[in-house]
Amino acid sequence: MQPKVLRANLTRQIREQGLFDQHDHVLVAVSGGQDSLHLLRWLTEGTLPADVQPTVSAGYVNHQLRDDADAEEALVRRTFAATPNLAHGLIETLTWEAVPTVAVEEKAREKRYEALIKMAREVGANIIVTAHHQGDQVETILYKLTRGSRLTQLVGMAPRQQLRGDIDLARPLLDLTKADLADLVIQPLTEWVEDYTNADETFARNRMRQTVLPALTSINEQAAEHVVTFATQLAALQKLANGAINVHVKALEAGRLDWTVDESVLTIIIQTWLTKKHVLNVKDSQISQAIQLMRNPSVSTGLIDLGGQLQLERFDNYLLLSQKH
């Protein structure tokens, strides 16, 4: 695809999906890698049509977890200083009471987004923009599938979603491959940092990227596109099904749910009900126990321990979510 066509298609998508426009102030999440630097340059080169050109600031978080963290920060400082049309360039260095040795990626991500939200509020930005692309989307879908995530989580990352109160998160590059990103910009990048930890296959996502995805692509060159298409179709099916599912959720809440229907159907109903209550980390085995409890004609009460302070409780025909006493 010609770069001009690529950029025109992306502009049309931004308008159709309402990702941002001239009235928005976006904070670009910059890491020092090629992807986020391409995103920053594309948003600040002045090539976007006026109606979709937001005010642009940028934020970088130094996690202090890699040997080259200071060199990366120095590169980001140079980039911010040389970037035209940049309202603000903010940098925050994280501190750790103890450097994490397990769940490192998850803990770093949590602290990074907290810092980015703080930066966005500091400069008055209403949207944080990230450089997630099609490859990241495929990794996310396959990773969640492998971990046994709920059906609703297999649709992947949303182009735009609420992140925290007055701050949204936008991902405008989800339909582009990593190779496409260079064609977004007029002036090519001359420097960036390669995150050497991306080659460390002790991290599950890296194994997905380095081993699983190449294996799938060797079977079918369009494997990545097919995964994304599957997720898009699944999201469409969920939209169609939401009305019917919510009818059953209301029946559950009213103590009128038919517990004789197929267990896989009941599982989706209970998962949807729990999601409404912001309870996400419930195992399928726990939901199955709850179904069996509600189906048991010999009892009218019972408890299913969900861990922590939560439990599922049967009271006659009602399934309740309650706190442990």
UniProtKB/TrEMBL annotation:
GO molecular function annotation: ATP binding; tRNA(Ile)-lysidine synthase activity
GO-annotated cellular components = cytoplasm
User: Any one Gene Ontology biological process term?
Assistant: tRNA modification
Q: What class of enzyme is it?
A: ligase
Positions binding ATP in this chain are S31, G32, G33, Q34, D35, S36
Which Enzyme Commission number(s) are listed? 6.3.4.19
Keyword Nucleotide-binding (UniProt): yes
Name the UniProt key words of this record, in alphabetical order: ATP-binding, Cytoplasm, Ligase, Nucleotide-binding, tRNA processing
Query: Do you know which InterPro entries this protein is assigned to?
Result: Rossmann-like_a/b/a_fold (IPR014729), TilS/TtcA_N (IPR011063), tRNA_Ile_lys_synt (IPR012094), tRNA_Ile_lys_synt_N (IPR012795)
Q: Which residues form a coiled coil?
A: none
Name the Pfam families on file.
ATP_bind_3 (PF01171)
Subcellular localization is given as: Cytoplasm
Catalytic activity annotation? cytidine(34) in tRNA(Ile2) + L-lysine + ATP = lysidine(34) in tRNA(Ile2) + AMP + diphosphate + H(+)
**Keyword Mitochondrion on entry:** no
Q: Where is the tRNA(Ile)-lysidine/2-thiocytidine synthase N-terminal domain?
A: 25-210
User: Chief location of this protein?
Assistant: cytoplasm
- Supply the NCBIfam families for this chain: lysidine_TilS_N (TIGR02432)
Name the family the entry cites: Belongs to the tRNA(Ile)-lysidine synthase family.
Describe its function: Ligates lysine onto the cytidine present at position 34 of the AUA codon-specific tRNA(Ile) that contains the anticodon CAU, in an ATP-dependent manner. Cytidine is converted to lysidine, thus changing the amino acid specificity of the tRNA from methionine to isoleucine.
Q: What is known of its domains?
A: The N-terminal region contains the highly conserved SGGXDS motif, predicted to be a P-loop motif involved in ATP binding.
The protein depicted here goes by the name tRNA(Ile)-lysidine synthase
Organism of origin is Weissella cibaria
